[in-house]
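Hi there. Long-time user, first ticket. I'm pasting a complex I've been working with (about 421 residues overall). I'd like to know whether the download I got is complete or cut off, because the file seemed smaller than I expected. Thanks.
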Amino acid sequence: MLLYVVSTVFVCYLSFNLRRNQLTPIVWNTLFWIIILFAAVNAIAKSFSQERYGRLIYYYNLCSPQAIIISKIIYNSFVMLFLSGIGFIFYAFVMGNPVGDIGLYLICIALAAIGFASVLTLVAGIASKADNSATLMAVLSFPIILPMLLMTIRLAKNALDGLDWSVSNDEIITLLSIDLIVVTLSYLLFPYLWRS
Amino acid sequence: MRKIWWKILCIVLLFYVIFMGLMGPVPHLPILNESIRNTYFHVALWLAMTTLLFSSMIYSLMYLRSSNIKHDDIASELAKSGLFYGILGCLTGSVWANFTWGDPWPNDPKLNGAAVGILIYLAYLLLRSSFEDEQRRARIASVYNIFAFAVFVPLIYILPRLTDSLHPGSGGNSTFSSYDMNSDLRMVFYPAIIGWILLGLWLTELRVRIKRINRLREEEFTKAS
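Hi, the file is complete. Here it is re-exported in full:
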């Protein structure tokens, strides 16, 4: 997955190589989040479909579904934090770094990583039950993740311009509450999904 | 002929709304002018759609608690009529926007949110069509439906209020109640909401009945063969 992110970043770098001066901060920001989004979908889609059937039954006997979804969310959050962290460092390294407020940008990355991980974990659970799970994963997750992505891009834009933190309070609170809603819903709904 | 009264009420209310909506007195506001009559159709359709989708979510919850396939039938058909209303709401909205904002699809957060909302529910229908087994499909679709509604509400009602939007009630524009909503408008607006909701329920009821009849016929067919 790390290789996936790095090579995507490199492809973007080479494609923008012709006209470096056209890479405005807004394009920079949007491109980064699109790379992270696709990396997230690809990374987390595996979290259920990769498991063999026998192992799922083993988990089923071993512990409660709540424990499984929470542990999957935590694991995927760490994967996403790691991926987007490395991705950001490499991206800033090759594409230049116009970020005004690094601290806020890192907070934004962390919130987005946790949010993406929790939404996509449940969607991956849903999609893995169907046959053509790869297509279904993309179709189900993109519209659902969009509000989160929009908030993240807005927050990242504030960080990029180095605005005062009080300006972005609204966005941080909204992102946190969306994260909270999503995690609670996954916790409540996953047992029903698990049974089938 | 049982429980027919609400269908009659629906027809009466909608006829009242159409006649009064097109010919009744309306306040004259700048920019909006006569197009304010669209309130009875566009705004009422959106409210009816939200009600339908909300009740769809309630039925999905009930399905998860009871595992009764009838609840899932109702939930899916409610979502379908909600989607239908959503598309109608977009069409009426874009007619209205064409006259007042000068563009059938202005770049407005609420419009984009609505488009994404429609995508979410189309994905729900796609998800339903990708399962063979009935109980399994019902359970997984219910989980997605509840999840989708929880994302849909902030998308339509909360996010646009945080940003600048052309719609009333967001970004410095006044909300609807403080709007020039005088008693002439209210006299038609509230019946319009109820009428559209009843029409949606009627649509849903018909489709649920067709579904049940088909299921019965299929069972008889498998018994006979």
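A couple of notes from our side: Confidence is low (pLDDT under 50) at residues 170-175 of chain B. Residues 183-224 of chain B form the longest helix (42 residues).
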